[in-house]
From TrEMBL:
Subcellular location: Cell membrane
Transmembrane helix found in the keyword field: yes
Membrane topology type: Multi-pass membrane protein
Function: Component of the transport system for branched-chain amino acids.
GO molecular function: L-isoleucine transmembrane transporter activity; L-leucine transmembrane transporter activity; L-valine transmembrane transporter activity
Keywords annotated in UniProt: Amino-acid transport, Cell membrane, Membrane, Transmembrane, Transmembrane helix, Transport
Protein name: Branched-chain amino acid transport system carrier protein
Residues spanning the membrane: 12-29, 41-68, 80-99, 123-142, 154-173, 193-215, 227-253, 285-309, 321-341, 347-364, 373-394, 414-432
Length: 441
């Protein structure tokens, strides 16, 4: 048994992590964040990096302590949560948000820029495109062969090269100067950026796909759970460095693009920048690359969700399940990218705090694994506040409720769940101690 990986052995694992989290769909968020945060860009992008890069790496390290099984971790709350929480995660990174987003992002990047304004406003154009897109996704997902893997291996480096060229050109020849931040980034820009990082959904994906990285480390001969977690963090630092450079650079590009006007989402902003810097040919090449990158991501997610739901519903065939997933994703994608992001954020604001609490508790499991009340108290505390926060984001919370919530520390910053989760955990700890004391008397 090996005690640890050498740096040479760690590099391929780090690159694997980079490839997992470097999704084409995630590239649209940093530019819009930079555009909106203006002179507060460095504070807001720091928050974004923490939630979009730091949390996923911690998530993989956390589930490595549970053999890579998020169900085992979630079962610490209640056995039913071992099914419910993975189900919610797969729905979020699957047909509810992530899969439809691949269709809308590829449309915005590869099709919409080449249509007239009149054609872009015709609902049936997106309908026809997404029908073809998800039909192809379905047929490729029936047998996700090595062809898709091989395409992905070439597309990730190609996309990385193209983004690097755009970044170098945009930084060396900025299209404008950084202006004042928008209203939402005037106060607490770090926490605003932190919450925007939820949109990548990478921390959720890490909880279910982290087993891939863990198995890669095990194949190198490292079997001790603590050493696997340590190797994951070291490899993660390699991935984090690359992702941070890309996200920060894209945010800077967005911050210097305010002279272009108002943008409703990051894909429109990014295509405008590329067209300004490289013309139609550059825009065409980026669009084609993004299209295939989104397609391979879509196939991978559909296949993963198909396998998961097959285990939950063994009487339904894999082919029927992925057909349902593709049909549902097709319907959701026709809401459009901006509406999809608007709808997903309130739900992610509810889900993410629970995931963060579980990730943190995983590192203390050796001390609290027999104290179920700690898990229950912490998660319920986070869930209670995050539901209210989600309702507020969706503009569904009553004025009286919001007035009351002003008394909760950090609520206005979107982090009110932190103290309540901690309080719930402490109450759970006291209950566990009292229960244990009663059982021994």
């Amino acid at each position: 048994m090996k005690q640890s990986l050498t740096f040479k052995e760690t590099i391929p694992i780090g690159l694997m992590l980079f490839a997992i989290f470097f999704g084409a769909g995630n590239m649209i968020f940093p530019p819009l964040l930079g555009y909106s945060s203006g002179t507060n860009i460095w504070i807001s992008i720091s928050g974004f990096v923490v939630s979009s890069i730091g949390l996923p790496l911690l998530a993989i390290a956390a589930i490595s302590l549970f053999g890579g099984n998020v169900s085992t971790l979630a079962s610490r709350i209640h056995p039913a949560c071992g099914v419910i929480i993975p189900l919610i995660i797969y729905l979020a990174i699957g047909p509810f948000f992530a899969i439809p987003r691949t269709g809308t992002v590829s449309y915005e990047m590869a099709v919409a820029p080449f249509l007239s304004n009149t054609m872009q406003n015709q609902w049936y154009i997106l309908l026809l495109y997404t029908f073809v897109y998800f039909t192809i996704t379905y047929y490729l997902s029936l047998n996700p062969s090595k062809l898709v893997d091989r395409i992905g291996k070439y597309l990730t480096p190609l996309l990385l090269i193209m983004i690097s060229i755009i970044i170098v050109k945009a930084i060396s020849s900025p299209v404008g100067s950084i202006s004042t931040p928008s209203d939402s980034y005037q106060e607490a820009p770090f926490f605003k950026g932190f919450i925007e990082g939820f949109l990548t959904m990478d921390a959720l994906a890490a909880l279910v796909f982290g087993i891939i990285v863990i198995n890669a480390i095990k194949e190198k001969g490292v079997t001790n759970k603590k050493l696997i977690a340590k190797s994951t963090i070291v490899a993660g630092l390699i991935a984090a460095l690359g992702l941070s450079i890309i996200y920060i650079s894209l945010a800077y590009i967005g911050a210097t693009s305010q002279t272009f006007g108002i943008f409703e989402n990051g894909s429109v902003l990014l295509t405008n920048v590329v067209q300004h810097l490289f013309g139609q040919y550059g825009l065409s090449l980026l669009g084609i690359t993004m299209l295939f990158a989104c397609l391979t991501t879509s196939v991978g997610l559909v296949s993963a969700c198909g396998r998961f739901f097959t285990t939950l519903f063994p009487k339904i065939s894999y082919n029927k399940i992925i057909l349902i997933i593709c049909l549902f994703s097709f319907g959701v994608s026709n809401l459009g990218l901006s509406m999809l992001i608007k709808l997903s954020l309130p739900i992610l604001i509810v889900i993410y705090p629970v995931a963060i609490v579980l990730i943190i508790l995983a590192f203390f499991d050796r001390y609290i694994k027999d104290k179920q009340a700690v898990y229950v108290g912490s998660v319920l505390g986070a869930l209670l506040i995050s539901i209210i926060q989600g309702l507020e984001t969706a503009e569904l919370a009553s004025d009286s409720l919001l007035t009351f919530m002003q008394h909760v520390p950090l609520y206005n910053e979107g982090m009110g769940w932190v103290l309540i989760a901690l309080l719930g955990g402490l109450i759970g700890l006291m209950i566990s101690g009292r229960t244990k004391q009663c059982s021994t008397t």
